[in-house]
Amino acid sequence: MAAERSVQGFVGLLNQGSSAYVNTVVQMLYMTPEFRNAVCRWQYLETCSVRDCRQFGKKNKCNHAETKEKCILYQLQQLFLKLQTVHKVAVDTYGLTRSFGWSNREGALQQHDVSEILRVLLDAVEKKFGFNKDIENLLNLYKGEMKDFVKCLKCGNVSVRADSFRNLPLIIKPHESNITYNNVTDSLNAFIQPEICKGYKQHFCKTCGKKCDTHKELKITKLPYVLTLQLNRFSFDYDTMHRIKINNKMSFPKILDVNFLCGHHPDSLSTVVQDFAVANDSNDDNFLYEAQQCTSNAPYSISDDSGFAIINDSNENITPEIASQECSQISCSNAGCPEDELSEEDLVKAAFKSGKNVYELFSIMVHSGNAFGGHYFAYIKSFTDKKWYCFDDDCVTLATDDDIKNTFGDDKLDSSSISSNAYVLTYRLIDSTRNADFITKDAFPLHLYHQLEECFRSEKECEDWLCKFTLYSIHPTTKDFVQDYFAVHKDMLFKEATKIAYQLLRYNGVVPLEQCRLVTYDDKTNTIKQSFDGQESRRFGQVVGGFRQFYNFNLFLEVRGKNSL
Questions:
Q1: Does residue 456 sit within a domain?
Q2: Which residues form the domain of 43?
């Protein structure tokens, strides 16, 4: 692989087989300044991290101390260092996935969910390092708080349960309903709407001693700094008994006003919440104050079909239906706004009139495929140059506004269609007192400089596991005979190695990847010796005859005609 970063200045991540879900989450976390900075400041110490152990916090006193190889946070720190400092098109994630306890076969080669891996990663860090104040602050970036109120409609008893969340699941198409929420704001509003629970939805009332009809209501008491929204694109069809993917259109704003989440009743708290505050004043004195502080007199805010925020200037309590009919469309383009539309800066100013809970979209994790499998990649906004980029494994390219809009979904597609839809959205609170810039290399803490040396040493050791060749090809348009240095880790899948060769020779946009294949080549006789058809899903080292310091052949990237496929 050529010793250079991508033309966009970012480093990609190699796919280990079906590990795009890991790559997508890692790039999102890396592109979050506050998260990256906290990981960089953290220092690895080989100490016991088990709270119940007598040796807790002491060095080398018991067998609980994690080695660097098994320490998730250390491996994530190593990976972030590589992404920020190496001069390569892409690096691998083997160290990180091994720290999960996964072998290649058990973890990386199985399809997982991006929301699941984000939860697993943050939970693992919290379990091992939650006692560390810096790490606690890091995890709190993603932590919100809510209270769930349930009022028995028979006896009037009100119970409350406090909970925390790291993401909010948003329904696109409710079960057993003809309703479809076509924008994120409407779905968020539905998330906090009161509900009368009857039939199989009844709750058990301790006072009545049985299940009763109830009034249920959820109140968000604290929003996280980084707000993660998971669009529920997957469901189960009980008629066909098959998993389905919901491809309906759901637009989302780049500037999200969520002041209504903390008090969707403009003038007062709802009846059930007030009942609880009165009946339980001695038990929860602070809640009514917290909820009132969070309650906003903000006008209702929705998104238009283009996916960007609509702000209504009146002080009326407007329903989604009225807002949809009466609000004029206001959209914002990433590349620039027409004269009759608000700029992103103006949208932010307008949203702040509602309150301080205004967020900026910076990551869109996309699922490409159907209900039974697929591929993940992400569109991520750089807080440095304010541009959007597509992070697709080892390939990083500029993204356009149309690319983002194309992830909204399409009402015309059925549940069996293959599609590329937004699946997880990540927003950051707009707050100049908290919004951070990335730590630069010259501002690294001292321990990171030592780790950089170790990182480069491990990179040198990794070189010993690279299968190295000279790569040849005939350019499909210029017909020039080209060659380049080509090195691939022995454990990479052969089809991924083919993709790297394709990108190395810059054939992107020149010829489809499907028309290219790697074959063995004798440069002395100028002849192609052997193809590797049918072995695309095997390890590269296995296909080329094992790992060796020298091979008696080189590789040729052959471009075939469409009719010969």
A1: no
A2: 12-138
